[in-house]
Amino acid sequence: MSPQLTLQTPLELVPSEVPTYLEQLWSPEQQGSTGTGASTFCLLIWQPAWAEQHLVRSGRLKGPITGQQTSDLIAAGRQAITEADLPLSTPPLDGAVIEAVARLQGDATAEDLRGQYIDPALSALMPRRLITLAPTVAPSKGLETLVAAYCPLPEEGGGTTACGDVVVLRGGDAALQDGMTILEPLLPASMPTWVWWNGFLDEAPELMARVACTSRRLIIDSAVGQPRQCLEVLRQRVESGQAVNDLNWLRLRSWRETLAMVFDPPDRRDALSHVTQLDIDVEGHHPAQGLLLAAWIADRLGWTLDSAKTIDEETTAQFHRPDGTAVNVHLMGVPVGQPNVHAGQIVGMRLICQPDNGKGVCVILCADSGGCMRLEGGGMANLDLHEDIVPVQHATPEMDVARLLGGGHDSTNPLLAAAAPLAAKLLG
Predict the structure, then answer these.
(1) Is pLDDT at 12 greater than 80 in this prediction?
(2) How far is CA 157 from CA 32, 37, 402, in A?
(3) Which of 85, 199, 353, 397 is the most exposed place for a label (fewest CB within 10 A)?
């Protein structure tokens, strides 16, 4: 289903007038009110959409600017990779792509609908207030504050009974910093507030610290940004006690579930106590997801980290099991011709279990049959080989965020809380 626009053309107000206007908008005395305001949650979104803005500006992509990962945007990103002679394994919205298109000439303009273009997966949850911080590629652009009423479409189960509003703060970096003063009165303490940092985790750190305070529930994507900084942000936020949700971790669900099912038969469970080798292949140069998977396995099996080092796109680590036996972990980035839009997605993994008595087990999981070929080499003949294809989901970021919001959790997933600090240590 296509994203929808707000019920009305957003009204531009000076920042100081926004809180009063929103109070009046949902007042019972307001004539022609669209409905009563929902008592659900507030969602604050950092939505820079740098690649989309520069591709539109340079004439490589038609507007409007929406902040959505559309097929046209991804195709334009892949074309930019070819034109800029970047490695083919570069994700289509990667930082290297943004740097390349930022250097392109052009001054094309298009309507900017960030914050007004609402995905059905989010609108179905009937948020009370959506606040979008929309930085522009023109750093000197002044602050624009837009406000509009909003209701889910009737065919989505909405109507006029539980509506909300959207607020958009758009402008250059300095203008957005100045506009932060209006956020507090717009985020009532009576409702939970989620902050979705829908951008690179190594950009605008001061602004991130300001809007994503520990009392708010944070949604990030550890696949977006420099790997070391991504895992460090995740570790710091987890250890601070903040409720943190990582979309990169969420995308690991099918890998974790498939691996658990492989060892579910009673005759195979004992093999988990005899793991000697773990190999993980990821797309390209971003190891965060692979490290999170390795950290989850190590934590669940009670391994203790002895050493770890990363050279180029290869991470090696040594653990020891509870019985003192060494376990070697190897993560490698492999080039792919058509990379996922999310950097560093897992291509395949191999887990070797070798008990002192009895036949060993080798488990190979792959995103597709081609990914299994490299992992099949190297002395598999004397092991009980089990291969499986992991069903990889292709959900939009908005759908993943909606899954998290629908759960309503006010704390960090305990498995993620245990894996995040260890994953950061693996990278060094």
Answers:
(1) yes
(2) 21, 16, 16
(3) 85
